[in-house]
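Please predict the structure of the following assembly.
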Amino acid sequence: MPDPDRTPATHDIGGLSRYRCVPVEHDEAPPDEFGRRVDALRQILAAKRMMTVDELRRGIEAIPPDEYFELTYYERWLRSITTLMLEKGAVSAEELKR
Amino acid sequence: MTDTPAPRFAPGTRVTVRDDWPERRGPCHIRTPHYLRGRPGTVQRVLGAFANPEDLAFGRPAPKRVLYHVLFEQPPLFGEGRPGDDVLVEVFEHWLEPAAERQAA
Amino acid sequence: MSTPARPQSLADLEALVAALKARGIVTEEELAARQAQTDRASPEIGARMVARAWTDPAYRALLLSDGAAAAEAMGVSMAGAPPLGVLEDTAGRHHVIVCTLCSCYPRAVLGYPPHWYKSFAYRARVVREPRAVLAEWGTTLPDNVEVRVVDSTADYRWMVLPLRPAGTEGWSEEQLMALVTRDVLVGVALPVPPRAAAAE
């Protein structure tokens, strides 16, 4: 019986039964331009000590479950990076609306 | 490095992963997978000492913690699998306790 | 399958980049340079390291004791990269790497992780039913080989040093490299021995 006090966090999916019969899709497509650009941006911000990979992960893990599973991999990254830059005041919500 | 703590557990030591669920208490970032909580394993190797990701994730000062490679028998983790198969995982020292003497059944 | 990002996400990215540029935090040149640099890393680096370890005992010892130093010895810059650990397959044990919590991957020596490595199905299943997942790659291990699943959870990144297939005696590093695919370096596949390769 599921124990509410021992429910794993959204991202903590190792061994979860709901993936039991889900085949691993052997998708060989390299990341697209969007993904590679997000990736490069994250590396630059890390090199400039504006965020750590741990903060990136914390931001990803904070995405609500329905969105976590709906967004693509690099969309989750972008969501986290944006949240972190707002949190740190590196950009403002107004600037992002322009 | 001067701020590197000395390892508490030597290779070969039987340990138990703390059965703690901080994700149920509030915002946190932890690198100990849920399927290991409360599980016994064996220290395979000391990997070094690294800034604690639980602090780094929130931009807090992050003291170094000793990181171990810990080996777990695979079948008991999920109640299935082939005896002899195992799982090797990086676990920080503050998630490990000396193995309990034979838990009461 | 790898679904493309939503149009809204493309717009969100450009808005963030524009705001960061306006603040003088990033430039287009930096983005282009970083992207080009990241694009250059590929599994050929890892394959070269394995092929050399198969032919050079001193390099093999270095690879197993300090993967990052072994990568540097091949001319790969590991500055800023996480430590690299290399796990050696034996006649009785095979390693397969996963990151159940996110997608930790030895990018410096393998390049971008493939889509399947980051997929929920791979992350969830390998740790629980490794042999079933390996079978989906056509990888069947003999009964006397134990599987060791390596869940990459923290500061290291991990790569597999597979067994050198029989029948490759006297092969050059270039020939050996061709047997060492990215899937082999992650551990979902084994190097195809020459006789089987010829029969394909």
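The CA atoms of residues 85 and 97 of chain B lie 23 Å apart. The interface with chain A takes residues 21, 23-24, 27, 29-30, 33-35, 37, 53, 56-59, 77-78 of chain B (CB under 8 Å).
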